[in-house]
Amino acid sequence: MSKQSKRGVRAPVPEKSAAFFGEFWNRRLVNLAADLVVVPAVRLLRGSEGARQTLNGLAGEQLCFHEDRLVPQLGRVGTYGFVILPGGCAWALEEHEGCTFCPFQRAVDRYVGNLPLDAAEFLRLFGASFQTIRDRVTMLNVFTAGSFFNAGEIPEETQRGIAKAVAAQDNIRILRVESRLEYIEETAVAPVIAALGGKTLDVVIGFETQDDQLRRMLRKGMSKRGLEEKITLLKRLGARVSIYLMIKPHHVVTEGWGIEEAEASIRFAFAAGADEIQLQATYIVNADPDGTKGDKNLMYEWHRDRGFEPPSLWSIAEILRDTAPLGPVMLGAWETEIPPPMRSPSDRNCPVCRAELLARIGRWRTTLDPAAFAPETLPSCACRTAWERETADRSRPPDSRMA
Ligand code: SF4
Ligand SMILES: [Zn+2]
């Protein structure tokens, strides 16, 4: 695979005959037919939701879906739509091999292979999904498994085409995209904001942790100063900024330090100007149980070989309660992940408290009200006592372990 090409990530789309590139044209024609024929026809017969289910069924993947959730910018629950585009991640394709916890590029490779998508095919893929959810969503997340603003991953024409489609849909208020810092430039972001015609652009940056050494261990390749500069730029251009952070992103993070570290990261991100935090508790997935897909998954290996565990629901409750006054901290769901986690925070708690804490987390997700975790109202149980003992030591591991 070429490291540097016109598109930045993969070789340019081949200008060869259809017969020679049969595989390429087969995929392209399927995407064209989905957008122009199949989805509109099913939509007429079975409505948008029927068309969405048909499209996902034909693709064998959740290409688009929606759920109701709190939209902090609007201060109310809205319908949140997801459209997935296989843009891929230059960071994962080049020498860095990507961040340690991230499986996205392998999923993109399986779909795209060595046959790249051009701007028109990306727009067809987007169009097929978008027409099944556009009438109902308040906020649209276009997830590209990489950086929306890297023209080598998502061509500029596609970026603007998506923004224009959102601008034309009255009910959609916010477009959310993700990007690494190096692609957040005025020349890339300003045209998308202009095409959105007054709607909000929300840019999510995966920063994961404020601890410089820990972030290096995750192979993030980002500095605090770099993040601060790009947040300043985005705010000047009129965008909203959300930051991804993780609780216990690496096996060296103990349960006790994991709480301190996540809280310090949330404080740092808000102080740097973030409008919202997307907090993700780690969980263990074995996406390749028979070892045939080549999906190496460090979280799974750490769990299997080192006894690494996701954070307890008790830790999550404490972090959310402590940082509630700082701003909106949205907790990512592990319960609905595909494939389902083999070990998640829910598994860290005992039957006495598990359902109660999950219900309180559900309340938090729709209200951001720290009363959901008021200490005097929390249940007492054996796992709470064990967790208090485990987290009595909140110290950072010595530098000798941080390697
Ligand atoms: S987390 Fe983001 S930057 Fe890191 S490999 Fe995954 S998509 Fe790329
Ligand atoms: Zn318990």
Topology:
Elements: H1 22-59, E1 64-71, E2 76-84, H2 90-93, H3 104-112, H4 119-133, E3 139-143, H5 156-167, E4 174-178, H6 186-195, E5 200-208, H7 212-217, H8 224-237, E6 240-247, H9 255-271, E7 276-281, H10 298-306, H11 313-323, E8 329-331, H12 354-367, H13 382-390
Parallel strand pairs: 2-3, 3-4, 4-5, 5-6, 6-7, 7-8
Antiparallel strand pairs: 1-2
Helix pairs in contact: 1-4, 4-5, 5-6, 9-11, 11-12
Zinc ion (ZN) binds next to helix 13.
What is the quaternary state of this protein? single chain
The number of domains is 1
- Write the CATH fold name: TIM Barrel
Which second-level CATH architecture applies?
Alpha-Beta Barrel
Coarse shape:
globular
* First and last CA, distance: 30 Å
Number of helices: 13
Give the class from helix and strand content and strand pairing.
alpha/beta
Helix content: 40-55%
What does this structure look like?
This protein is α/β, with parallel strands linked by helices. The chain has one domain (63-396): Aldolase class I (TIM Barrel, Alpha-Beta Barrel), CATH 3.20.20. Helices cover 42% and strands 13% of the residues. The chain has 13 helices and eight strands. The chain has an eight-stranded mixed β-sheet with strand order 1-2-3-4-5-6-7-8. Helix 5 packs parallel to helix 6 (186-195) and helix 11 (313-323) runs parallel beside helix 12 (354-367). It binds iron/sulfur cluster and zinc ion. Iron/sulfur cluster (SF4) binds at residues 89, 91-92, 98-99, 102, 104, 145-146, 180, 206. The site of zinc ion (ZN) has 7 residues, from helix 13.
